[in-house]
Write a structure and sequence with these properties.
The chain is built from ten helices and 15 strands. The chain has 305 residues and is an alpha/beta fold. It has a domain of 207 residues: Rossmann fold (3-Layer(aba) Sandwich). It is globular. The mean pLDDT is 96.
C-alpha cells in the first residue's frame, strides 16, 4: 500500500515509517517545509486547506502531527496545541473525504489521539467506551477525534489511537527521565498512587501498522500495555533496573508550582487504561510487563551507543 504519514520525523513517526517500509509498504511524508520534501512527499500547512488531489494517490493516511504537550501551558502554547491538532486534523479529514468520494482513495485515516481523553479517573478501569474526562487535554482529545468526522462520514475508515506514555530509551519521556534516575535523585511524583499507563515504542509502531493493514479496525482504540502501573511502581521498577535508589518524593505542590495545569493533567493524573479493542481484534503486545520492557529498552540503548 501507499501510506502517507504526517509527523514522520517524530519518535513515533520514525518508528512507524521504518516498520511499514520493512513490511514493503511505500511510505511518503506530509511535510511543512517543501525544501525538505523527498520525491512523492506532500507539502502542506496544517492550518490551511489541503487540495484533495494531492492525497488522492494514497491508500492510507497516518496522521501524527501536532505541537508537543510536554511544555508549560501558557495561553499561547495551549492555543498552538489546539490548532495544531484540531485544525490540522479537520483540514486533512476534509481533503480525505473529498478525495475518497471522487476516486475511492484514501481508504483509511489512522489518527493520533491520547489517553488524556479520559482525564484523571483515580482507580477506574478505562476502556474505549468510558466517558471523556475533564481538563484541557481531555477537551483537546475530544475535539481532535471529532475533527476526523468529515472523513468518516464520507466512508473513509477512520481509527484513532488513544496512546499512553510511549517508552523508549532513545527519546520521549523515558529518555528525559533517565539522567535523574541514573544519578539516584529521582523519586515518585506526589503520592505516587496515580496510575501511569504506558506502551513500548515498538508496540506503538506495530499497533499503528496493525490498524493500517487490518480493514476491520476503526473507531477509538486504547494503545496502552495491559500492565498499567502506579507512578510509585514505575519509579521503583526503573530504579531497580538501573540499580539506583528512588527514595525521594517530589511533592505535588512543587510540581503544580513549576508545571501548572500541565503537571496536574500529565504527571499527577491517574489513568488506568485497558487496550480492550486492540486485544479483541487480535493484536498481541510484545512488551506486556514493565520491568522486562525497560530492561530490553536499556539493552538496546547500550547496543546503539
Amino acid at each position: 500500500m501507499r501510506v502517507l504519514i504526517s509527523g514522520a520525523s517524530g519518535l513515533i513517526g520514525e518508528a512507524i515509517c521504518s516498520l511499514l517500509s520493512a513490511r514493503r509498504h511505500e511510505v511518503c511524508r506530509l511535510v511543512r517545509d517543501p525544501a525538505k520534501a523527498r520525491r512523492d512527499d506532500v507539502a502542506w500547512q496544517p492550518s490551511a486547506p489541503l487540495e484533495a488531489a494531492r492525497i488522492a494517490g494514497f491508500d492510507v493516511i497516518v496522521h501524527l502531527a501536532g505541537r508537543s504537550v510536554a511544555t508549560l501551558w501558557t495561553e499561547k502554547a495551549k492555543a498552538e496545541i489546539w490548532r495544531s491538532r484540531v485544525e490540522g486534523t479537520a483540514n486533512l479529514a476534509r481533503a480525505a473525504a473529498e478525495a475518497f468520494l471522487a476516486g475511492g482513495r484514501p481508504r483509511a485515516l489512522i489518527g493520533g489521539s491520547a489517553i488524556g481523553y479520559y482525564g484523571s479517573r483515580g482507580d477506574e478501569e478505562l476502556v474505549e467506551e468510558s466517558k471523556p474526562g475533564l481538563g484541557f487535554l481531555a477537551e483537546v482529545c475530544r475535539a481532535w477525534e471529532d475533527a476526523a468526522q468529515p472523513a468518516a462520514m464520507a466512508g473513509v475508515r477512520v481509527a484513532q489511537m488513544r496512546t499512553a506514555l510511549v517508552l523508549d530509551a532513545s527519546g520521549g519521556a523515558l529518555a528525559r527521565m533517565l539522567p535523574a534516575f541514573r544519578l539516584g535523585v529521582a523519586g515518585k511524583l506526589g503520592s505516587g498512587r496515580q496510575w501511569w499507563s504506558w506502551v513500548g515504542l515498538a508496540d506503538t509502531a506495530r499497533a499503528f501498522a496493525f490498524a493500517v493493514e487490518d480493514e476491520q479496525i476503526h473507531g477509538a482504540l486504547n494503545l496502552a500495555a495491559p500492565d498499567a502501573v502506579t507512578n510509585a511502581e514505575f519509579t521503583r521498577t526503573l530504579g531497580r533496573v538501573l540499580h539506583r535508589p528512588t527514595l525521594l518524593t517530589v511533592p505535588a505542590f512543587v510540581l503544580r508550582a513549576l508545571g501548572g495545569d500541565m503537571a496536574l493533567e500529565m504527571m499527577l493524573a491517574s489513568q488506568k487504561v485497558m487496550p480492550r479493542r486492540l486485544l479483541e481484534a487480535g493484536f498481541k503486545f510484545e512488551d506486556v510487563e514493565l520491568e522486562p520492557a525497560l530492561r530490553k529498552m536499556l539493552r538496546q540503548e547500550t547496543r546503539q551507543k
